[in-house]
## 1
Amino acid sequence: MLIQVVNPNTSASMTDLIGRSARATAGPGTAVVAVHPEMGPASIESHYDEALAVPGLLAGIAAGAHDGADGHVIACFGDPGLDAARELATGPVVGIAEAGMRAATYLGRTFGVVTTLQRTTGRAWELAARYGVREQCRTVRAVEIAVLALETDPAARSRIAAECADVVATEGCDAIVLGCAGMADLAAELTVRVGVPVVDGVAAAVTTVEGLVRMGLRTGKRGEFAPPPPKSYTGVLERFGMPTAAALR
Ligand code: 5HY
C-alpha cells in the first residue's frame, strides 16, 4: 500500500519531520511518500495562508493519485482543501485535525487541543463542530509560537509541555490533540510527561487511511465527491480547469 502525506506549506524541513512521524506509524507493507507543493505559503497561520495553500495541495494530491497512491493525508491542522481533495482523489483522504480529534474521542470522554497561534483556534473549534466532536472538545489553547519556530525555538518543547499539563490540571481532559503537524515528533514524550494520551494527528491520519484502504474502502463518488466537472479556468490557475493528474502536474 502507498500513502501520500501532503504538507500543504512549502517548508521542506517540516515535510521531513512529518514524513518521519508517518513512517514510524505506518504498518508493514505500507510505503509513505511525504511531499509539499512548489508553490504556496512557507507556513499556514491564517485564513489567507490556508486559502492560498489549497491549489498547491490539490496539485500534489492529483500527482500522488496519478503515481498510484492508495490514500492521502492532508498534514495541516486546518484540514485545508479536504473536500476538494476528496473530489479529486479516488483513494481516501484524511486530514490530521479530523483524525486527531476522532482518535482522542476513543481515549476518553474529553480532550483539549494545543496549537500554535491564538488566531488559529477559531478554525479548530469550527472543525470540532463539523466533525461532531464539539462536545468532547473542552478547550483549544495556543502557545503563541509560530509554526516554523517550532523547529528553531529552544523553548518551544517545554512551552508546549507546560500548556498540555495545564490543560489536564485545569480542564481535567482525558486526552490532548496536538494542533500542528510541526508538533508530530512531540507526542510520545508528552504522553509520558503529561500523563494522558497526547495525539499526533499525522500518525492518527496515517493509521486511519491504512485502515480504510485495508477494508477496501474509497471516497464515495456518486454525489458530492464525484470528480469536479472540467471547465475553463483563466490566468495562473488555467491548468486547474482540467482537474486531472496530468494537467495539474
Ligand atoms: C499546520 N499550519 O499544521 C498548521 C498549524 C496551525 O503550516 N501546519 C501549518 O498553526 O494552524
## 2
Amino acid sequence: MTRPETSPSVRLQLGVCDYPEHVPEDRWSAYAQQQRQLGLTYVRIAEFAWGRMEPRSGEYDWAWLDRAVEAYHAAGMRVVLCTPTATPPAWLVRFHPEILPYDAQGRVREFGSRRHYDFASPVYREHSRRITRVMAERYGQHPAVAGWQTDNEFGCHATSRSFGGASAAVFPGWLQQKYGTLEALNEAWGNVFWSMEYTGWDEIRPPHLTVTEPNPSHVLDYARFSSEMIRQFQAEQVAILRELSPGRFITHNFMIFESGFDHYEVARGLDFVTWDNYPTGMLEYFAPPGIREDVKTRYARTGHPDLIAFNHDLYRNLLEGRGALGREGADSPNGFWVMEQQCGQVNWAPYNPLPADGAVQLWTAQAWAHGADVVSYFRWRAATMAQEVMHSGLLRHDETPDRGFAEVQALDLGSFPVGNVPARVALVHDYESLWAYDAQPHNAAATYWQQTVTYYSALRSLGVDVDVISASADLTGYVLVVAPAITLVTAEMASRWTAAAQGGAFLVCGPRTAFRTPGGATWTDGQFGPLSTLVGARLLQYDSLRPGVTQDISGGHTAHTWAESYRLQGAQATHTYQGGPLTGQAAVIRHGNVTVIGASSESLIQDVLRGALQEAQVVTADLPEGVRLSRRAGHTLVQNWTAEPVPWQGRVLPPTSFEVMHDQ
Ligand code: GAL
C-alpha cells in the first residue's frame, strides 16, 4: 500500500530510525522504498556511526554514507542526519583517554558501549566540532537532508555529570567566574558549617565520595556547572550546522524524565525539540517512586498514560516561543516531534513485555493529540548483533514485518490534523528546583518528579489539557497555574506569579514551595521567602512520614510521605490536620486566588484542583480509571489505556483503543 502524498503541515507525519551501517548494502534501497510505501516521511540515521565515517584518525570514509543517503533520497525519504558524538571511536579514546568520564564512585567509565565522554573536555570539544564540521560540509546542502539531530540523548546512562577528569579540572574555574572570590563562594555555600571553607580554588572537587552527604549548595552548583557544559557542547555543534547547512532544522532527542541538565537552557537555539518515547520501559525503569506495583502491573503492556503525556506536554513547551523553523517551516509547525517511538518491546528495563495489541497506535495517537508533528519509530529492523538484539523494530530480525509494522500500516493519518493544543492550565517545572529538592528529599519516598507527576496526573484525571512550562515562562492566558514542587523561587518568579494572580489567574502550589534560596539555603525569614505576601502565611512544621505512618486531614483525606503546616498571616485554612503532632494546624491554605497544599494526598490534591478548575471555569470530567481525553486542532482524542472495555458517556470504549472526535 502506498499512501497518498499530503502536505506535511496538514497532518501528522511518520518516520523511522534506521542504521544502514548495520545491514548489507544490498538492503538499503529496498528498505528505503519499503519505508516510503509504509507512509513514512523521515528517516533518522548515523548517530552512532563515527567509527565508520572516520575509521582512523583523520581518514574519512564518506562513500558508504553518500550511497545510503542517496538510497533514501531516491525513495523519497527525508533524512535526519545526526552528529555522531555519542560514540567516540576506539582510536580517539586510545589517543585521548582524558576525554573519558568518571562515575560518582570516581571510576573511569570505559570504552565499549556509548556516551563515554566528558562534556567539559576541551580535547573532546575540539573533536566534536571537527566531526560536525566535516559532516556539515559534506551533507549540509544535500537535497535529501531535511535537518540535523545533535548527538543522541544527552544524559542517557547517567552521563550528564562526570566526577573527575575534565569536569573536575574545569569546575573550579567556572566557580571562580561565578563568585569572583573564595570568600563569596564560602559565604554563598555556607561553608562555615563543618569547617568546609576553601582557601584555594584548586581545593574544590566535584561533590562526591564525601564521608556523609555533601553540601546541597555544592551539589546545586555542580548540577548547574554540568548543565552548562552540555549547553556549550551542543551550542558549538549548532553554530557549525547553522553556518554550513542553511535552511535545515536542528534538533536534539531528549529523554524520559531526564534530570541531569536544564533542558530549557540546552534547548535554546534548536528549531524544535524531540524526545524518545518508550512507554513500557518508562513505567518499569523511569517511573517516579510512588507508582505502586499493582499500577505497574495494570499498565505493563501500554505504559502509564500520564507518565507519557507529561513528557509530551513538557517537550511541546520546551522551546518557549519556538524556533524559527518550528514556527514557519513544514517540518514541525508546532515545535515538537517524537524522534524514537517504541514500536515493540524494549530491551533495557528489568521486564520487557510485548505491548498490548493496539498499543503502538494508541501511543501514536496520544503523541499527535499532545502536539507532536512527527512520530518516528525506533527502529526499522531489529538489530541482529550487539547490545540491542532483544529490542523490537518494525521488521523482525529476519526482515518480516513485526506486530508494530501492521499497526503503523493500519493507521489513518488523515484523522490526525496538526494544530494547537488548547491548554488553559499550566504546570510549572524547573530543573533547579528539581536539583535542590532531590539533593535533600528528607523522605525516601519523595522526589521532585513524584510530587510533580502526582499533580499532573490529578489534572489529567479531571480531563484537562496541560502545558508543562518553565519557571520563567510567560503566564499570560492561563486561568490556572499549578506549581507542584517549585522549591527554589526567585524574586523575579514571585513577582510574575503575583502579577498572574492579580490578573485573575488561580495559583495552586504544593509542599516545599519557595523553601530554598537560589543558593540552596533556606530563607532567613522562613518559607515562603519572596512569596510570603502572596501566600499570606509562613511555614510552621514539616513532617516526613515513613511508609505506614499517615496523617489525617479534614474532609476525609489522609497524607502519606509529607505533611507541612502553616502559620496564617492573612490566608485562611481550608483543611486542617487531625490527630498526630499537627492536630488543628493548617494543611491547605487559601489567600485570594492562591492555594497551597501542604500534604501528600492524592484525593486532597484532586479535590483542591477540581475546585480551582471549576472556579477558573475550566470544564472538568471525572474520568474512569485508564480513560484519558486530549485535545488538539479542534479534535478530542478519547483513549482507553486499560485491558478491559470501559463504559463511557453512553458507549463502551474497547480495550487499548482510541477514538478521534471532531469538536462541535
Ligand atoms: C534509546 C536510544 C536508542 C536505543 C533505544 C532502545 O534510549 O536513543 O539508541 O538505544 O533507546 O530502546
